[in-house]
Design a protein that fits this description.
The chain is an alpha+beta fold and 426 residues long. Helix content is 65%, strand content 7%. It has three domains: 166 residues, Globins (Globin-like, Orthogonal Bundle); 123 residues, Alpha-Beta Plaits; 83 residues, Arc Repressor Mutant, subunit A (Orthogonal Bundle), CATH 1.10.10. Strands 1, 2, 3, 4, 5 and 6 form a six-stranded mixed sheet that branches. It starts with a helix and ends with a helix.
Length: 426
Amino acid sequence: MVSAHVESRARSLPILDSATREVCARVADRLDLEATDLAAVMTAAVFDEIPEYAAAATERMHQGVLHHSLDHVRAIASAIRRWELPSGADLEFVKTRASLRATQQLPLSALLHSYRLGHRTVWERLVRLLVGLDNLLDASLALTTLTLSYTELISAALAEAYVEQQRQMLVERDRDRRDLLENILRGTLDRQSDTPRLASNFALVPGGDFLVVVMTRLSDSTAPTSAVLTRAAETLGRHFAVGVAQPFVVVRHAEIVSIAPLARARAASIARLARQAHAELGQRGEQWAAGISTVCVGLGEVARGYHEARLAAESASAGAGVCALLETRVSEYVVQRADSTAVRMIPAAGRRLFESPRADDQLLVETLLAYARGDMAMRVAADELCVHPNTVSYRLHKLNRLLDRDLSKFGDLVEVVTWAHVLGRS
């Protein structure tokens, strides 16, 4: 729909006296006679002066521009003869063309430029047609007003129809993206005939390698709004665009899901880009957690990768960070998944020690962990704790008695350190 402000302003044509009106009518008749030639001149100018049109030049494209130019010449001649600018219904041919060019992804700037060229070409022809007629000055001024108002009116109709078509295309593309994700997560790739087409539209090669990224909002019980989710998804997509040719990012319920192909980017690059997006969101005061799956070989494994990424995001929640499973130790992952049964398997002596608030017990635990971090080297542990190596040795012997383990043995050390991890003392 044409803007009411533009339309009302464009429709303020001057009232003509009978003599000037007659001259304008004669110009309109001449314009009709030369319509085919003028349309050809307009078409040539469009392809000669606008790079986007020249790059897309085909016989079909050329004929389309020629027919549209002819429609404009006839519309202008009709407007001059009636001394009335086209109504909304009369501008349907402009709106249809705008929708087509939006679908073809021709830039709006190029399309508007073509209409300005059309105005210039028509005005040059009108000047020639006015030669030898009476009331030349009055008719020139009147026709200047009409052609400028006509161009302004059709440009507004064009821009609004173009933007509306773009909006509809974005809505359809978002719907296709969500449908594709749901089909992949349900494992219905083979049963949905449209899925391969959708996947190719989003540069997801069925047999490729992928990582799945899931981002969840860290906040109170209030679910994130649609605007918050959309903004976060756009942020993630913008960062991924650095390493992924066509980022696939979808808002799904209260989370953001991305399927990242590994054709151009390595797993480490995806994790780095995800952390950059996470940092930007944090700078805006938004707290998110993100999880990144292991490698999914083919789209058929993405459903598994999605569940991995969700679990990883839960692991990252406490620190509001990004947990990439390929960068996580297997031992850490297993410990993070430990349940209440694992806690009950820890001997009572171990639970008492690691859950004790006493300072002496705290020193023993710190010594144990330093000894493990130092690869069982007492001097390294002593340097970290700023104590003598004999002190470390004394504390380890005490731990041996308390826990009934020999911490000089690798197997016993791993077991006891695992207790500490499960009980949250790492």
